[in-house]
Amino acid sequence: MPVYILHLVVRQWMKKHGGISLGIFPMPAGGSLLYYMMVFGFASLCVVIFSAKPVSKGYDFVMDTTYAIFMWVINHVLLPPFAVLEKGLKAWGVGTVNWIGRQQGEKN
Fold first, then answer.
1. Whole-number Å distance between alpha carbons of 82 and 5
2. For the chain, how are helix, strand and coil distributed in percent, rounded to 5?
3. pLDDT tens, 22-64?
4. Rounded distance, CA 26 to CA 38, Å?
5. Which three-class secondary structure state does DSSP give residue 52?
6. Are residues 40 and 14 part of one domain?
7. Domain containing 19: what range?
8. What is the pLDDT of residue 108?
9. CA-to-CA distance for 37 and 32, rounded, in angstroms?
10. Count: domains in the chain
11. How far apart are CA 31 and CA 28, in angstroms?
């Protein structure tokens, strides 16, 4: 997965800084053999680098941490008000599904 995600970052950076040549040397003609060799070589280099163990572990760490933070926010910030709502509805003898159905029925 890091290859697919990180190549987007590199691609946008390269577009901003002059293409494959990165502004260091003039670009070969679009259909020339040298152009295709550069594209294939750079793509291969990106695959080797982005699939390397350290990059993969770093990507996994960032994604796992982001997911853990996201789930913490869901479980500790967003769900507690709904738990209070559920308890209140149960105290009134109405289930959440019935209450939502009633709200949708009032709109129609």
1. 35
2. 80, 0, 20
3. 667 777 777 889 888 888 988 899 899 999 999 999 999 999 9
4. 12
5. coil
6. yes
7. 1-51
8. 56
9. 9
10. 2
11. 8
